[in-house]
Amino acid sequence: MRFGSSLCTLNVGGRRFCFSTELMKHLPLSRLSRLHRCVSESELLELCDDYDRDRNEFFFDRHSEAFSFIMLYVQHGTLRFMPHMCELSFYNEMLYWGLESSDLQLCCQRRLDERLSDCFVHFFPEEDLRDHEEPQSCWLERIRRIFEEPTSSLAAQILASVSVLFVVISMVMLCASTLPDWKTAETLDQHSCYSASQRKRGGLSAVCIGWFTAECIIRFLVSRNKCEFVRRPLNIIDLLAITPYYISVAVTTLTGENSQLQRAGVTLRVLRMMRIFWVIKLARHFLGLQTLGLTLRRCYREMVMLLVFICVAMAIFSALAQLLEHGLDLESGNEDYASIPAACWWVIISMTTVGYGDMYPVTVAGRVLGALCVVSGIVLLALPITFIYHSFVQCYHELKVRSSRCSHSLSADFIN
């Protein structure tokens, strides 16, 4: 094989495309960019259907016209569905070459979401690049899968169940600590050093924190990319949830159990309440929470657009409400609308159709404005909902496919 050749040929369904070797390395198509890493003909044949050593030609038994459209995306950065071709078939070609649905234009993404929803089709994309590279140590990879993929094995499922149990225990303790009876017991405990109930609560909290800390450290040690691990949102949340406990312990050690800072420290109470972030750890084990997070990440533009709509409408309606209810008659006007910031509260609860009733217009003009505010709020909130819904469906399908692949792996391991 002449990997050093300056030119190589791709034969896709009988149609030839010529590329330089250097260009092949930087193509956004993962299947082609992996060709130069192959060191044997057997590895090449895992990526292509045939190889001509003399011509340095790679043969792919795929749709040639679909590949031409994909090459237009490589050249111009715009990918749309090929006319007169089924969306699902074109999507299958995209997955073969290493592209995802997010590479499509928004209009084509919506068409694909509709077809996937109607046909309930699940595609299995190509394996990641790491599956073709030299694997890490076997036991490190197995530990990583146990901690990162809850459905990959029986041990991973057991570990995930234990982690969920500790999260539930932590949340129950956090909620119970705000009850009046619990606070009374804590006050009594402060007058007796190291009471039995205090030791039990502290010991249970220490066990939960110890579990979360050990889990986070192990996942960091066995991760493939340490920098990427630190940047992940869920890992940042884990750190925010664990750190306050150690800060509280450090402050307690430095200032004493019954110090004035311990009894009245607002900072410590805020740090303890940050343990509520532990509930987000459930996203690792529940598909619905993962789908919600992925949808919000992909639809951030639509969410920002929605917030802009609400802010503009809030500015307009609050100014008008303050003028109609208070500004025209300063002596006998509605004091609830004495300022525009105060009117903003009424606007937001009206646009979202919450309507607490704590403040409301009393003039005829104000009530007409309130009706317009409610109707406009319904319309503005409904505008981006369709796209967010389709994105949610797409994210759910992708995560479900990923979960199904892990389940198949679990079944195979169990049979073997």
TrEMBL record:
GO biological process: action potential; protein homooligomerization
Recorded topology in the membrane: Multi-pass membrane protein
Subcellular locations according to the entry: Cell membrane
Potassium channel tetramerisation-type BTB domain location: 9-107
GO molecular function annotations of the record: delayed rectifier potassium channel activity
Positions of the Ion transport domain: 157-398
Matches recorded under Pfam families: BTB_2, Ion_trans
GO cellular component, one term: voltage-gated potassium channel complex
InterPro entries (UniProt xref): Ion_trans_dom, K_chnl_volt-dep_Kv, K_chnl_volt-dep_Kv5/Kv9, SKP1/BTB/POZ_sf, T1-type_BTB, VG_K_chnl, Volt_channel_dom_sf
Stretches that traverse the bilayer: 154-179, 204-222, 234-256, 276-296, 303-324, 336-356, 368-392
UniProt entry keywords in alphabetical sequence: Cell membrane, Ion channel, Ion transport, Membrane, Potassium, Potassium channel, Potassium transport, Transmembrane, Transmembrane helix, Transport, Voltage-gated channel
Protein name as it appears in the record: Potassium voltage-gated channel modifier subfamily G member 3
Annotated source species: Anabas testudineus
Organism taxonomic ancestry: Eukaryota, Metazoa, Chordata, Craniata, Vertebrata
Encoding gene per record: KCNG3
